[in-house]
Structure formats: structure tokens, C-alpha cells
What we know:
Elements: E1 3-8, H1 12-26, E2 30-34, H2 45-49, E3 54-58, E4 66-70, E5 74-79, E6 92-97, E7 100-106, H3 116-136, E8 142-147, H4 160-163, H5 171-181, E9 186-187, H6 188-192, E10 202-203, H7 209-212, E11 215-216, E12 219-223, H8 225-228, E13 231-236, H9 239-242, E14 252-256
Parallel strand pairs: 1-2, 7-8
Antiparallel strand pairs: 1-14, 2-4, 3-4, 5-6, 6-7, 8-12, 9-12, 10-11, 13-14
Helix pairs in contact: 3-5
The chain binds one DNA strand through loops.
Amino acid sequence: xxxxxxxxxxxxxxxxxxxxxxxxxxxxxxVCLQELKCTEEAFPREPIEDLGYNIAVFGQRGWNGVAIxxxxxxxxxLRGLPGDPEDEQARYIEAFxxxxxxxxxxxxxxxPVGSEKFAYKLAWLERLRGRARExxxxxxxxxxxxxxxxxxxxxxxxxxxxxxxDALFRPESRRALRAILHEGWIxxxxxxxxxxxxxYTFWDYQxxxxxxxxxxRIDHLLLSPEAAxxxxxxxxxxxxxxxxxxxxxxxxIVRLRDG
DNA sequence: ATGGTAGGTTGCCTA
Length: 259
């Protein structure tokens, strides 16, 4: 019954104490991390290995950076999203572990709308769809877990009007995510909690957004049909967001039946 | 119309 979690830590260095506490308490089998903001060399391997995790990192200096942690052996690691050899941003790492294929995904933010960054976001999502299509051909259990920087529906946002012009909620961004879902992937959290409101994974640091529950749901685990067949539970763990020195994101966790 | 917060390749860029 492996559990797979996604957690945008907003700097692994700044978040290390909180992350270690959370790993020790929640004990997820596989964890996809985003926004490490460090190189592979600078990644704090030891304290995480001491909690029983193997680690695969794709980092860069200062920004972005993704990793996979797993209690099982990590095999067949792919660093970087295929489809653009010019792209140097560390936003995608994929591997086989714990009997499933897993990717840690950090979709570009894309603000401001209409900028080069927005075009990059849409192109990146299109490349992700291409990779998802390749992965689907293997007919294995696959989990694409990460910060998608897309609010799928109005229900995933405390105030849709306030986000209407934001790259996270623009129709183009939502359509790009939907294009992946339409090819047979499911949003694990929404599949098990179809009506639930206020199911957020991100609250801005500014303006007391967390205390007011002014959040958005942008961290997702997309499941291939073979993984969806095994989906048992999906939940948002708000505890890490309550702590001092919290990330602005909080983890989402799914549990899959044994395959 | 501004600034509010947090992190980093810090006195500005990204989120």
C-alpha cells in the first residue's frame, strides 16, 4: 500500500527542519519535492537518508529544482522534461520506485499573462502532455505529482474573481491541464472528493491568507488508469502549513493498493 | 495605486 506525496518546499535549505519533522511523522513511502532552490551537490542528503529515504535530485542554482525521495530503491531516473534540449530549468524528474513510475513536476508559474513566461508555461504543459502520452503507452501505474501552478476549477479557489487574470487560473492554463486529463489521467484528490470546497494546497504568505483560508488548489497527483484503479485515499495534510517557517504550499498524499 | 511576505544568483528577481 504505497503512499505517494507531493510537497513544494520553497527552498529545501530553509525548509529542512520542517521537512524532516513531517517525514518522520507522516512516513510517506514516496515523496516528490519541488522548488528545492539548490543544486544536486548542495542537496542535504544525509539527514533525509537517515530517515530511510533514497534520493534522486535534479537541481539548479537559486531556482526551481525537483527531487524524488523513496523508501524503496530508485531506478531508471530521467532528469529533465523531454521535448526541448534548450530548456535548462530543473522542473522535472522521473523514476521507477516502489512498483510505480513517478514524476516530480514543477510547472512554470507563467505570470505575467501575455509574457514570454506565460508562453513558456503553456509550451511546458504541452510538452508534459507529450511525456504523459508516452508514459501511458507502457500501461503501468504512473503518478505525475507536483506543483502544476494551475487552479483546475472555480471550486479550487477561494475567490475566483480575484484570480481571473492570473496565469494560474487563465483559461489557456486550465485548458492545457484538461488536455492531459482528457487523455485518461485523473486528478486523484478531486476524484475522491468531487464536491469538497476549501480543499487548498497553497496560501500566499501575504495578507494572512492562511489564517483567512484564502487558498488555491494547485498541487496535484495525476494518475494513469492503472494507478487510478488502485487509488484508495487522497488527502491534503495542512499541518506543515501551520508551523513556523512554513512553506507557502502544503503536502498532498495518495495511497494506492498493492499492484 | 500601493504594498503586503518569503526565498534566493539580493539591493532586484521570482513566486
